[in-house]
Every structure is written in structure tokens, then in C-alpha cells.
């Protein structure tokens, strides 16, 4: 009896000496993505952060919790971070007609007719058509839209977000005629009248007329978008281009506990944002980080608005567009430099990349830790590649762009295709590179990013040898690009991006090991659970 009592007292004493925590995970294969890329079996979480990582035996000997989860060998990774997306915009597109994958303009007409019958909104809005998917790869014209909607304005944005097709009602509301000119944009004209196709800055003549959804509708869409992100393993997103009212709405929802996804906000370069945010320094909470300005140097390759040094191979005489006046880029870079803000510039074509690399270099002047970024960095002239390393300029890539564009990019670029989507070359410039999707341009699924990065193939296994496979990233490089390097690109590597003591407990559980399985199985791996601050959100 004495021995039994003594043993019980020993056990109770042992338990009382253990630290109580909120959650313990055991018996998992954990990719910590720490400096040594080490593995673990178990971790303990308290107050939303990892407080210990190690073997199951080590963690259970020191910690106790009412919530103990045995994963029986399943796989844990840090929560995925999308280094370049349009989260707010994506959420608003959930209210519009989804035109992704349509195979003809006729399919688009059917889709928007069904959408309008269901919602009957003031405007007919849609997103993500791509004429490169059609049998006849030419831009559509407005006549059939006019037949279907003679009295209601229509605005349908191309998949890249750099072109739109509108109807005559929308053109009339915007006052657009064949004589209308727009700096940094193009209005397609045929037989003396606009066709309805608007490129880059010309789009804003119509888009600024579209009423915003009411607050209640916007919040509902934001929550659905957040849920969609959690479902695919995204715990953080870098939102590339936000207005003041959008940032403040996101901030209020996060503070009220209504939203939990972490957002790195890139600001639109307007007066409201500059006066409210930039001139008052960095704005930072656990869930929101405001310290960067988003610029556009050019348009997109698919809509032939990307700015090229030499003309398009399939459109002689067209070099694409530079969106703003040169002095504007200098003004924004100077403002950012003086206020310790990051500059993140969309640059697709080799001329746009050269322009921004050279402008950046005037302010950075050599080695630095400003982490100014070139978003997309799709086509780089060989003479300009080393500028990324010389001035510590960060190329922020989206791996699925190469596998989406590979079917037709050579038509636009000819021999210059070898200078495009050179992710491995760009990685070597600074030794790290952030990766994302650019959703809703691409699908939001980060596993598709992972697959495109390592395999350089589409979901049908094309091309068999991989598209320009010499520029594929390894699995280790790819995982880092979607976790710790994506965090670093947002100055947040000390608080997230890896599973380490003191960092936010953001992690995901997968049913397969994406670091080991055959690469063609990667897109079909299931995200079993997603956690933010140690709390399950999926």
C-alpha cells in the first residue's frame, strides 16, 4: 500500500512540475524549415506560439495539455505564405461570374447570362477569361455583349487583370470614343469605333465607375475568401495593391476576431495611402503589416502590354506599355526610401525590368537590406540579371505563371523565351527567393505553385521533360520560397515562416509528404488541417 501511494505521489508530483500548454502535437513528421532544415516529431503551443519543438518523448516529459493530438506519422509544414496575391480583389471576384477555363466567347456569354439572371446586379461583372484558350486566339469585340445587354453595363476582366472587354453601355458611361487617349493604356479601335477591349490604364476609365459592394456583402466575401485560403493551407498572404478603406476594413475585422489570416499589405500609390500610412511610418499588428508601396511598370504578356526592349515577335511594331511617367517612379522610390518603406513593382517585360532595376539602383546604390522587390520578373535581359544581386533587389516569382504561359509565350517572345521564367538563375542572385500565385490570376492552391516550381509541367504532365527544366527549383528551395523566404520578403522571418520557438503557431497537416512522393502526385495531396495561432481554422 505504501509503495502504491508513493508511486502515485511521484506521478502527481511529476505532472505538477510540467508546464501546462494549450496544445501538444505528437508523433508527426515535422518539417521545421529552420536554419538547418531540421525535422521534429512533436511541439508544444502556448498563447498562440510554439514554445518547444523536439521528439515526442522530450515534449511529453516537460509539457502537459488538455489537448493532446497524436498524428500517427502525418506530415506537418509551416503554414504556406503567398508572397504575391490579390486577396481583397479575389474575395470580391467571388461575387462575379467566374470565366476561368472558358473555351470560347460564346461560353462567356452563357456564363454571364446565367450569373446575371441569378443576381441581377447593376453591372454585369466577370473575371478570368483568356483568349489564348480559344480556338481563335484573338480579342473579342463588344457586339454580342450589346445584343445580350443593351441597357446594362458589362465589364469582364481578363485573367491577368491587364485587359477587359466592355459593352457599348459601359463605353458610353465612361465617355470613351475612338479618339480617347490614355497614357499607359490602349483602347482597341476598329472601323472607327472602340471594339470594347481596354488595356491597362484604359481599364480604369470604366472600372472606377463600378460601385463597390456594400460593407455587409464585402465582409461576407472576405470571410469566404479567407476560408478558401485556409482550405488550401494558406495562413498568410501578401496583398499586392490595397486602398486605405480596404486596409482599414481588414484591420478592423482582424482586431474584432472576425478574420484571422495574416496580411502583408502593399499600398496603392495614391494620396490617401501616402498621407495616412507612408508618412506615418510602418503600421504593424500580429495580423497586418503595412510597409510597402505597389507600383506597376508595365502590363502583361498575354495581353501584349508587357514592355519589351524589342517588339513582340507576333505583333511587329508593338513594344508594349510603360504604365506611368518616369518621374512618377522616381518620386515613389524617393518617398519610400525616406520613410523606410519597401517598393514592390510589377515588371513583366525585359524593358520594364531594366527600367525598374536601374531606377532602384539609383536609391539603393549597392549592398543593402531594403528588400525592394520586382514582382513577377518574368523576362530579364541577360545584361540585367546581375543587377538583382548587385543591389540586393528581390525577384518575387509565381511559379504557375511559367506553366500557364508556356503554350504561347514563345509566340510573343521568339528566341527571348530563354530569358523568361528563369527562377533558378534569379534565386542564385541573392540566395533566396519568395514565391506566390498572383491569385486570382492563377488558382489559389499553393500545392500547384509547389508542383510548377519543381516539375515545370502542367497537370497533364506536359511537357514530358519539363518546361525549361534547368530553371526548376528543388523541393527544398521551393518549400523555403513558400514559407521562410516569403516571410523574409515581408520582413517577418522572425515571427513566422518556420516552426521555431517563439514564432506564431501557424502550421498545416498534410496526408502525404510533398518532399518525398513522386512529383506528379503533389497536386493531389490533401490539406487535412490548417492552424493559425495554434487554433484549427480548417
Task: Please provide a written account of the structure.
The chain has 538 residues and is α/β, with parallel strands linked by helices. It has three domains: 2-73, Urease, subunit C, domain 1, CATH 2.30.40; 82-86 and 213-536, Metal-dependent hydrolases (TIM Barrel); 96-207, Diaminopimelate Epimerase, Chain A, domain 1. The chain contains 19 helices and 26 strands. Helix 3 packs across helix 8 and helix 11 (326-338) packs parallel to helix 12. It is globular. The two termini are 49 Å apart.
In angstroms, what separates the terminal alpha carbons?
49 Å
Low-confidence stretches: none
Largest sheet: 8 strands, mixed
Beta fraction: 15-25%
Mean pLDDT value? 95
CATH class call of the largest domain: Alpha Beta
- Rg value: 25 Å
Give the name of the CATH superfamily of the largest domain. Metal-dependent hydrolases
Count the domains. Answer: 3
Q: Helicity range of the residues? A: 25-40%
CATH topology (level 3) name of the largest domain? TIM Barrel
Structural class: alpha/beta
By CATH, the architecture of the largest domain is named Alpha-Beta Barrel
Provide a count of the helices. Answer: 19
Strand elements, count:
26
What is the global morphology? Answer: globular
Amino acid at each position: 500500500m505504501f509503495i502504491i501511494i508513493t508511486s502515485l505521489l511521484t506521478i502527481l508530483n511529476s505532472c505538477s512540475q510540467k508546464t501546462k500548454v494549450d496544445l501538444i502535437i505528437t508523433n508527426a513528421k515535422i518539417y521545421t524549415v529552420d536554419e538547418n532544415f531540421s525535422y521534429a516529431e512533436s511541439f508544444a503551443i502556448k498563447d498562440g506560439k510554439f514554445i518547444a519543438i523536439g521528439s515526442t518523448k522530450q515534449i511529453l516529459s516537460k509539457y502537459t495539455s488538455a489537448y493532446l493530438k497524436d498524428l500517427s506519422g502525418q506530415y506537418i509544414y509551416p503554414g504556406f505564405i503567398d508572397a504575391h496575391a490579390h486577396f481583397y480583389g479575389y474575395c470580391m471576384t467571388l461575387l462575379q461570374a467566374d470565366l476561368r477555363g472558358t473555351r470560347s466567347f460564346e461560353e462567356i456569354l452563357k456564363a454571364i447570362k446565367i450569373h446575371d439572371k441569378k443576381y441581377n446586379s447593376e453591372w454585369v461583372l466577370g473575371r478570368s477569361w483568356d483568349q489564348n484558350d480559344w480556338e481563335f486566339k484573338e480579342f473579342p469585340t463588344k457586339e454580342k455583349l450589346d445584343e445580350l445587354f443593351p441597357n446594362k453595363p458589362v465589364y469582364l476582366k481578363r485573367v491577368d487583370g491587364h485587359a477587359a472587354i466592355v459593352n457599348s453601355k459601359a463605353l458610353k458611361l465612361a465617355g470613351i470614343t475612338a479618339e480617347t487617349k490614355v497614357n499607359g493604356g490602349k483602347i482597341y479601335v476598329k472601323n472607327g469605333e472602340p471594339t470594347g477591349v481596354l488595356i491597362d490604364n484604359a481599364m480604369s476609365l470604366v472600372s472606377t465607375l463600378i460601385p463597390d459592394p456594400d460593407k455587409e456583402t464585402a465582409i461576407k466575401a472576405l470571410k469566404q475568401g479567407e476560408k478558401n485560403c485556409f482550405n488550401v493551407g494558406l495562413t498568410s498572404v501578401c496583398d499586392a495593391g490595397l486602398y486605405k478603406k480596404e486596409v482599414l476594413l481588414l484591420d478592423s475585422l482582424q482586431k474584432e476576431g472576425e478574420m484571422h489570416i495574416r496580411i502583408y499589405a502593399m499600398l496603392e500609390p495614391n494620396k490617401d495611402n501616402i498621407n495616412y500610412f507612408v508618412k506615418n511610418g510602418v503600421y504593424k499588428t500580429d495580423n497586418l503589416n503595412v510597409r510597402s508601396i505597389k507600383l506597376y511598370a508595365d502590363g502583361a504578356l498575354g495581353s501584349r502590354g508587357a514592355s519589351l526592349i524589342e517588339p513582340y515577335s507576333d505583333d511587329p511594331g508593338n513594344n508594349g506599355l510603360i504604365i506611368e511617367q518616369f518621374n512618377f517612379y522616381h518620386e515613389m522610390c524617393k518617398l519610400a526610401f525616406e520613410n523606410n518603406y519597401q517598393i514592390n513593382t510589377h515588371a513583366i517585360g525585359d524593358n520594364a525590368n531594366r527600367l525598374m532595376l536601374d531606377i532602384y539602383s539609383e536609391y539603393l546604390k549597392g549592398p543593402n537590406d531594403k528588400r525592394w522587390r520586382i514582382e513577377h520578373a518574368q523576362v530579364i535581359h541577360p545584361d540585367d540579371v546581375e543587377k538583382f544581386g548587385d543591389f540586393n533587389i528581390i525577384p518575387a516569382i509565381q511559379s504557375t505563371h511559367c506553366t500557364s504561359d508556356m503554350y504561347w509565350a514563345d509566340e510573343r517572345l521568339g528566341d527571348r523565351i530563354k530569358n523568361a521564367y528563369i527562377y533558378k538563375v534569379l534565386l542564385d542572385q541573392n540566395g533566396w527567393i519568395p514565391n506566390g500565385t498572383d491569385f486570382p490570376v492563377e488558382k489559389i492552391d499553393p500545392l500547384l505553385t509547389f508542383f510548377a516550381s519543381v516539375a515545370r509541367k502542367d497537370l497533364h504532365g506536359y511537357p514530358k521533360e519539363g518546361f525549361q527544366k534547368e530553371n526548376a527549383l528543388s523541393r527544398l528551395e521551393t518549400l523555403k520560397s513558400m514559407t521562410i523566404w516569403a516571410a523574409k520578403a515581408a520582413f517577418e522571418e522572425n515571427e513566422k515562416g518556420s516552426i521555431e520557438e517563439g514564432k506564431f503557431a501557424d502550421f498545416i497537416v498534410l496526408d502525404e509528404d510533398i518532399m518525398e512522393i513522386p512529383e506528379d502526385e503533389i497536386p493531389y495531396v490533401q490539406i487535412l488541417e490548417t492552424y493559425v495561432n495554434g487554433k484549427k481554422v480548417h
